[in-house]
Amino acid sequence: MFAREHIEYEAVDLPDRANLTDEQMLAAAEAFHDKMKRRHTVRDYSTRPVSREVIENCIRTAGTAPSGANHQPWHFVAISNPEFKKKIREAAEEEERRFYDGGAGDEWLKALEPIGTNDVKPHLEDAPWLIVVFAQKWGYFEDGERFKNYYVPESTGIATGFLLAALHHAGLVTLTHTPNPMKFLTGMLGRPEHEKPIMIVAVGHPSEDAKVPKVAKMKKPLDEILTLAE
């Protein structure tokens, strides 16, 4: 991590190498795609608990993500306390009511119709865990001097992608929730002023009658998302 004693460059040998054959690489890539295409954004959660150790390990994976200047400008708050979840739901739904009552604009609301969302967010209480992702605009040395972080949205976004993949790999389902504004989370969770909440990730097991919108499984084909320059 970024600290005064780690400011100077020092090279070390690459500690880990996969060293797969071409055939093994292709098989691994196909297997990972097969795993990830079974990821679903879920709004219906069961009461089955999830251990803290699982959540910790998934966040540990998120912490391995690359970041601008290796400053690792993120912080995750994992919440299982029912009272906290209730307060977060109430505050988030207040913002969402303003959104759906006209704050979003007709075009945005029309785009959301196939997803079937509204201002009611029971998953924020039903899911056994909520993980709030904070982006750190700056950091502090041990003596209190402030330093700037770089590529903060990009770095935090990559770490959140690692987190979602890790949670899915652990057999859990998630929902990414971005009420706007989310400043209420900073005070509620006791985070410092240099951290900006950017996302709430609901985590748990799907309920027996969980549903997903049909359109959510309609992904763009490869030829629409890839251009090769060989």
From TrEMBL:
Cited Gene3D superfamilies: NADH Oxidase
Claim: Oxidoreductase is one of the keywords in the record: yes
Keywords: Flavoprotein, FMN, Oxidoreductase
Domain Nitroreductase stretches: 37-205
A Pfam match: Nitroreductase
InterPro entries: Nitroreductase (IPR029479), Nitroreductase-like (IPR000415), Nitroreductase/BluB (IPR050627)
Superkingdom in the source lineage: Bacteria
Entry protein name: Nitroreductase family protein
Organism: Hoeflea poritis
